[in-house]
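Quick one: Shikimate kinase from Hymenobacter yonginensis, structure tokens please.
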Amino acid sequence: MASEPELQRLYLIGMPGAGKTTLGRGLAVAYELPFLDLDEEIVRREGRSVADIFAAEGEDYFREREAATLREIQQQPGRFVLATGGGTPCFHHNLEDLLADGPVLYLEVPVAELAARILAAAAQRPLLAGLPDRAALISRLDETLRYRKRFYDRAPLRCTADACTLDNVRRLLAQYLPLA
Ligand SMILES: Nc1ncnc2c1ncn2[C@@H]1O[C@H](COP(=O)(O)OP(=O)(O)OP(=O)(O)O)[C@@H](O)[C@H]1O
Ligand SMILES: O=C(O)C1=C[C@@H](O)[C@@H](O)[C@H](O)C1
Ligand SMILES: [Mg+2]
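--- reply ---
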């Protein structure tokens, strides 16, 4: 692609199942940057899964670890693409810290599509596990998104559903960033 910008740090935000990890890995390859996933960094430091952390310690503890891990990553020098957790921008000072450090891209995906993606792996998502059926999942996602939208909407960059492709996002970034 012509006129590629010099991307230092890129943060992906959005609901569970929005594709942050999938797209983040692709963008990291495209820009030759290390890829980091905040959930995975927390899991590595804690030595247990996100579901186990929620079950044993509760959400407040997880949110505190999430914020501390984000801070730690941001304090290290170097370039990277970071896929955040679904709730990351909505707790503590995280959104301000993301916005201050690099372009933030919101992956906006309709709730019905999120539900379809999530149903296959609901057990790995503690806040969504145990919902009896698709209607209940959609209703929970709707309610969650209604609250979180105010945070997600502050991202300066956004792609929506099928437009969240590697090529589209690279074009968005090329328009947004000063050229190297
Ligand atoms: N653009 C896409 N179109 C269709 N399916 C997708 C797309 N991107 C990701 N998926 C699928 O949706 C599921 C969720 O993707 P992914 O794990 O990347 O989302 P996430 O935003 O990182 O979720 P979480 O917040 O739970 O970490 C995966 O099964 C993935 O293969
Ligand atoms: O949407 C959320 O609040 C969460 C999403 C996941 O990425 C994990 O960070 C955790 O399961 C919480
Ligand atoms: Mg992910």
